[in-house]
Amino acid sequence: MPFEIKIIDKDAIFNVVPLVEKLNDYKISADVLKQRFSEMVDQNYECVGVYDEENLIGVCGLWFCTRHYAGKSVEIDHVFIETEYRSKGLGAQFFDWIYNYVKAKGCNTAELNTYATNYASHKFYYNEGFNILGYHFLKKL
User: pTM of the prediction?
Assistant: First the structure.
């Protein structure tokens, strides 16, 4: 089954909200997600979509920065693929596209966070060559 993977235009960013709602354990409302995505697209952020024909079935964000320990880097964020498309090699295809895209933008490292209880993602990321560097801490202010 052929899939199209491409950067989502800023003016279509709200199309990702239904998928991100399925991912977020914090149960953030669609209105709050829309407000945050409208800010994110004006920062060092891009969003990638996976399409099965016209249907958006996968998404992830890309945050670009330079880190003192890693150089020019991309942080891969909020990765989600619809359940019925999982375990068919699409994740690896998605990440190959991402690696090629960010290398062309000059990145030499990729990093990401995943929920501690998302064991399936841990296995996938290990298979992709990611290693645990540290812990991600969050404090609400």
Answer: 0.92
